[in-house]
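Format notes (please read before filing issues)

Several people have asked whether sequences and structure tokens are stored in separate files. They are not. Every record keeps both together, in the order shown below: the sequence lines, then the token lines. Line labels are part of the format and must not be stripped during preprocessing.
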Amino acid sequence: MLFQTSFLTASLLALASAGPLHKDIAAALKRQLPASSGSAANSAAPAVQSTGVIPTGVGSTAVPTVPTTPAAQTPGGNSSVGSVSTKGSVTGSVAVSSINGQDGKGAGTDVYKFYQGDGSTGAGWPASTDWVSFENMFEANKVAMKSSCSIYSVANNSDTEISAIHDSIEAVAKASKVDHRFILAVMMQESSGCVRVKTTNWGVRNPGLMQSHDGTGTCNDDKTHQVSTPCPQSTIAQMISDGAGGTAAGDGLAQALNQAKVGDVSAFYKAARIYDSGSVDASGDLGKGIATHCYSSDIANRLTGWVTAKTACTLDPATA
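Then the structure lines:
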């Protein structure tokens, strides 16, 4: 197992030395290196009241945040993000038209089921009716968010920063029309919710909570080496926007969902694979190709309640 991991890492590093890499190869590299190298993806688990406005770019979708009631804010906090814009939005039938924190079947179960195949319910993947509610999912992952930065030897998230994550996901979901549970699942997969997660760079920069494609949002800047404590609310919103709506340099979850070109729940599992590796393998099998082979299975499990249970996926060397 150690030989397999080392061999793949060495091979990918050789590719990196040849020049700039696509996000898929870059993602493969960062996930084959130890967590101390800058990736918090595949973790076993999982404030500033500034008024932030994400700059509106060409073709962006801007939606003002609707003030939330204190009752709806209980799990996430009481911060207010303000006006949010994203580079792109979902255009197909899987686009969300409204935000509802109680939109699933409660908290689900913290177990891991190994999913294989094309992401369809016919292949055994979970239906959207099996997904947990956003508020339950967020609450279940708060423990991880409170401790996930320690691996980088930086301050762990404050309660206010965690509140800002909650509200930023809600605001960006409304602007990008990406399901807020999907955004949260990918964020936990990529950074375990650490607002000061390191930027990885193997030909393509992957900064911030969503480890986006050369985004602008980060509170652990690889260019200036500045670590921001506290992490401004506007920056947290930018990190979520970079990952969900895309950046000037590359796609986000919205574009990946559009590229999936299907109108059922498999769009999300396919989009997860696209976000991680740049494409779905020609076979249609979401566990094949490059980068993290367990990625789509992990996302499906996060959406149904997985938090700390031992993974059952054996497709990647680190979990084999």
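For reference, the curators noted about this record: The first helix runs from residue 2 to 17. Strands lie at 61-63, 84-86, 200-201, 205-206.
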